[in-house]
Amino acid sequence: GKTPYPLGNAEFSAHLPKIQAAKPEAIYSVTPGADNIAFLKQYISFGMKKSIPVVQPLHWLPTVKEGGPEIYADIHGGTNFYWELADTVPQAKRYVEAHQKRFNMPPGDYGAYAYSGIMEVARGIELTKSTDPKVVADTLRTSREYDHYKGKQWWRACDGKSFQDMWIVKGREQGKTRGEWGLLEVVARIPASEETDRTCAEKGFA
Protein backbone atom coordinates (compact mmCIF):
# COMPACT_ATOMS: atom_id res chain seq x y z
CA GLY A 1 0.00 0.00 0.00
CA LYS A 2 0.91 3.67 -0.04
CA THR A 3 0.00 6.84 1.80
CA PRO A 4 1.07 9.97 -0.13
CA TYR A 5 1.73 13.23 1.69
CA PRO A 6 2.11 16.87 0.54
CA LEU A 7 5.80 17.61 -0.03
CA GLY A 8 7.10 20.01 2.62
CA ASN A 9 4.31 19.16 5.07
CA ALA A 10 6.32 17.34 7.71
CA GLU A 11 3.41 16.08 9.79
CA PHE A 12 3.05 12.32 9.49
CA SER A 13 0.85 11.49 12.49
CA ALA A 14 -2.12 10.76 10.22
CA HIS A 15 -0.07 8.38 8.07
CA LEU A 16 1.80 6.32 10.64
CA PRO A 17 -1.28 4.64 12.19
CA LYS A 18 -2.35 3.56 8.68
CA ILE A 19 1.06 2.04 8.14
CA GLN A 20 0.95 0.27 11.50
CA ALA A 21 -2.50 -1.13 10.76
CA ALA A 22 -1.32 -2.51 7.41
CA LYS A 23 1.45 -4.49 9.18
CA PRO A 24 3.97 -4.22 6.34
CA GLU A 25 7.26 -6.11 6.27
CA ALA A 26 9.04 -2.81 5.60
CA ILE A 27 8.40 0.87 4.85
CA TYR A 28 9.75 2.38 1.64
CA SER A 29 10.14 6.02 2.61
CA VAL A 30 10.24 8.65 -0.16
CA THR A 31 10.54 11.74 2.03
CA PRO A 32 13.36 14.03 0.87
CA GLY A 33 15.42 16.50 2.86
CA ALA A 34 13.94 17.93 6.05
CA ASP A 35 10.81 15.84 5.49
CA ASN A 36 12.94 12.74 5.88
CA ILE A 37 14.24 13.80 9.27
CA ALA A 38 10.73 14.68 10.43
CA PHE A 39 9.32 11.38 9.17
CA LEU A 40 11.98 9.28 10.88
CA LYS A 41 11.60 11.18 14.17
CA GLN A 42 7.86 10.51 14.18
CA TYR A 43 8.32 6.91 13.02
CA ILE A 44 10.65 6.36 16.01
CA SER A 45 8.30 8.16 18.41
CA PHE A 46 5.50 5.79 17.37
CA GLY A 47 7.71 2.88 18.43
CA MET A 48 7.81 1.48 14.91
CA LYS A 49 11.56 1.16 14.47
CA LYS A 50 11.65 -1.97 16.62
CA SER A 51 9.22 -3.86 14.42
CA ILE A 52 9.09 -2.32 10.91
CA PRO A 53 12.35 -1.46 9.12
CA VAL A 54 12.62 1.58 6.86
CA VAL A 55 14.40 1.53 3.51
CA GLN A 56 14.88 4.60 1.34
CA PRO A 57 15.70 5.12 -2.35
CA LEU A 58 18.51 7.50 -1.41
CA HIS A 59 20.58 8.65 1.54
CA TRP A 60 21.86 12.26 1.39
CA LEU A 61 24.96 12.71 3.52
CA PRO A 62 24.18 16.30 4.66
CA THR A 63 20.70 15.20 5.74
CA VAL A 64 22.09 12.20 7.60
CA LYS A 65 24.57 14.49 9.35
CA GLU A 66 21.80 16.89 10.36
CA GLY A 67 19.61 14.09 11.70
CA GLY A 68 22.42 12.20 13.39
CA PRO A 69 22.89 8.54 14.36
CA GLU A 70 20.03 8.65 16.84
CA ILE A 71 17.69 8.93 13.86
CA TYR A 72 19.55 7.25 11.00
CA ALA A 73 21.12 4.22 12.72
CA ASP A 74 20.25 1.07 10.73
CA ILE A 75 18.21 2.97 8.14
CA HIS A 76 19.12 1.58 4.71
CA GLY A 77 19.24 3.63 1.53
CA GLY A 78 20.89 3.91 -1.86
CA THR A 79 23.63 6.30 -2.94
CA ASN A 80 25.61 7.09 -6.07
CA PHE A 81 28.71 7.81 -3.95
CA TYR A 82 29.95 7.71 -0.39
CA TRP A 83 33.32 9.09 0.57
CA GLU A 84 34.49 5.95 2.38
CA LEU A 85 34.70 4.27 -1.02
CA ALA A 86 38.16 5.86 -0.95
CA ASP A 87 39.19 2.87 1.17
CA THR A 88 38.59 0.43 -1.69
CA VAL A 89 38.30 2.36 -4.99
CA PRO A 90 41.50 4.09 -6.18
CA GLN A 91 39.63 6.69 -8.24
CA ALA A 92 37.49 7.56 -5.23
CA LYS A 93 40.61 7.90 -3.10
CA ARG A 94 42.08 10.52 -5.43
CA TYR A 95 38.81 12.45 -5.58
CA VAL A 96 38.15 12.35 -1.83
CA GLU A 97 41.68 13.41 -0.95
CA ALA A 98 41.57 16.36 -3.36
CA HIS A 99 38.14 17.46 -2.07
CA GLN A 100 39.21 17.11 1.56
CA LYS A 101 42.33 19.17 0.93
CA ARG A 102 40.39 21.94 -0.82
CA PHE A 103 37.28 22.12 1.37
CA ASN A 104 38.36 20.46 4.64
CA MET A 105 35.49 17.98 4.43
CA PRO A 106 34.71 14.89 2.37
CA PRO A 107 32.53 15.19 -0.74
CA GLY A 108 28.86 14.36 -0.69
CA ASP A 109 26.77 12.45 -3.19
CA TYR A 110 25.33 15.22 -5.35
CA GLY A 111 28.61 17.14 -5.23
CA ALA A 112 30.24 14.05 -6.73
CA TYR A 113 27.63 14.02 -9.50
CA ALA A 114 28.41 17.67 -10.26
CA TYR A 115 32.15 17.02 -10.32
CA SER A 116 31.76 14.07 -12.67
CA GLY A 117 29.43 16.05 -14.94
CA ILE A 118 31.87 18.93 -15.32
CA MET A 119 34.76 16.54 -15.91
CA GLU A 120 32.79 14.71 -18.60
CA VAL A 121 31.90 17.93 -20.43
CA ALA A 122 35.59 18.85 -20.29
CA ARG A 123 36.50 15.43 -21.70
CA GLY A 124 34.11 15.95 -24.60
CA ILE A 125 35.58 19.38 -25.34
CA GLU A 126 39.11 17.97 -25.28
CA LEU A 127 38.15 15.13 -27.62
CA THR A 128 36.40 17.38 -30.14
CA LYS A 129 38.34 20.64 -29.76
CA SER A 130 34.87 22.20 -29.87
CA THR A 131 32.37 23.76 -27.49
CA ASP A 132 29.40 23.02 -29.75
CA PRO A 133 26.97 21.08 -27.51
CA LYS A 134 25.80 18.70 -30.24
CA VAL A 135 29.32 17.92 -31.38
CA VAL A 136 30.43 17.26 -27.81
CA ALA A 137 27.37 15.11 -27.00
CA ASP A 138 27.66 13.05 -30.19
CA THR A 139 31.33 12.38 -29.49
CA LEU A 140 30.66 11.28 -25.91
CA ARG A 141 28.04 8.85 -27.19
CA THR A 142 30.70 7.13 -29.29
CA SER A 143 33.55 7.50 -26.78
CA ARG A 144 31.30 5.97 -24.18
CA GLU A 145 33.47 4.94 -21.24
CA TYR A 146 34.76 7.31 -18.59
CA ASP A 147 36.02 7.17 -15.02
CA HIS A 148 36.23 10.38 -13.03
CA TYR A 149 35.63 9.44 -9.41
CA LYS A 150 34.28 5.98 -8.61
CA GLY A 151 35.10 3.47 -11.34
CA LYS A 152 34.02 2.89 -14.91
CA GLN A 153 30.83 4.47 -16.20
CA TRP A 154 29.46 4.52 -19.72
CA TRP A 155 26.89 6.28 -21.88
CA ARG A 156 24.12 4.51 -23.77
CA ALA A 157 23.86 6.22 -27.13
CA CYS A 158 20.11 5.85 -27.67
CA ASP A 159 18.99 7.85 -24.64
CA GLY A 160 22.16 9.45 -23.25
CA LYS A 161 21.83 7.54 -19.99
CA SER A 162 24.90 7.05 -17.81
CA PHE A 163 25.28 3.55 -16.39
CA GLN A 164 27.19 3.47 -13.14
CA ASP A 165 27.62 1.50 -9.94
CA MET A 166 25.36 2.33 -7.01
CA TRP A 167 25.70 1.36 -3.36
CA ILE A 168 23.42 0.35 -0.50
CA VAL A 169 24.41 2.04 2.75
CA LYS A 170 22.99 2.10 6.26
CA GLY A 171 23.31 4.52 9.13
CA ARG A 172 25.85 3.73 11.82
CA GLU A 173 24.87 3.59 15.47
CA GLN A 174 25.88 6.24 17.98
CA GLY A 175 29.46 5.58 19.07
CA LYS A 176 30.32 3.66 15.90
CA THR A 177 30.63 6.60 13.54
CA ARG A 178 33.89 7.44 11.82
CA GLY A 179 34.66 11.02 12.70
CA GLU A 180 32.32 13.88 11.86
CA TRP A 181 31.19 12.55 8.47
CA GLY A 182 31.55 8.78 8.80
CA LEU A 183 27.87 8.28 9.47
CA LEU A 184 27.14 5.52 6.98
CA GLU A 185 28.38 2.01 6.35
CA VAL A 186 28.58 0.47 2.88
CA VAL A 187 26.48 -2.69 2.83
CA ALA A 188 26.52 -3.69 -0.84
CA ARG A 189 27.58 -2.58 -4.31
CA ILE A 190 25.05 -2.72 -7.14
CA PRO A 191 27.11 -3.09 -10.33
CA ALA A 192 26.19 -1.01 -13.36
CA SER A 193 24.26 -3.08 -15.90
CA GLU A 194 22.08 -2.30 -18.88
CA GLU A 195 20.26 -5.57 -18.22
CA THR A 196 18.48 -4.04 -15.22
CA ASP A 197 17.08 -1.14 -17.28
CA ARG A 198 14.47 -1.02 -20.01
CA THR A 199 15.95 -1.51 -23.46
CA CYS A 200 16.17 1.26 -26.05
CA ALA A 201 13.34 -0.43 -27.95
CA GLU A 202 11.15 -0.53 -24.85
CA LYS A 203 11.78 3.20 -24.40
CA GLY A 204 10.87 3.90 -28.02
CA PHE A 205 14.37 4.90 -29.12
CA ALA A 206 15.22 1.92 -31.34
Question: Strand-residue fraction?
Answer: 15-25%
Distance between the termini: 35 Å
What is the tally of helical segments? 7
Number of strands: 8
Highest-level CATH class of the largest domain: Alpha Beta
Question: Looking at CATH, which topology of the largest domain would you report?
Answer: Rossmann fold
Element order, helices and strands?
HEHEHHEHHHEEEEE
Helices and strands in order, then pairings?
Elements: H1 16-22, E1 27-28, H2 34-45, E2 54-56, H3 61-67, H4 69-72, E3 76-79, H5 90-103, H6 109-128, H7 133-142, E4 145-146, E5 153-156, E6 161-163, E7 166-171, E8 184-190
Parallel strand pairs: 1-2, 2-3
Antiparallel strand pairs: 3-7, 4-5, 5-6, 7-8
Give structural attributes:
single chain, 206 residues, alpha/beta, Rossmann fold, 2 domains, 5-stranded mixed sheet, 3-stranded antiparallel sheet, 7 helices, 15% strand, globular
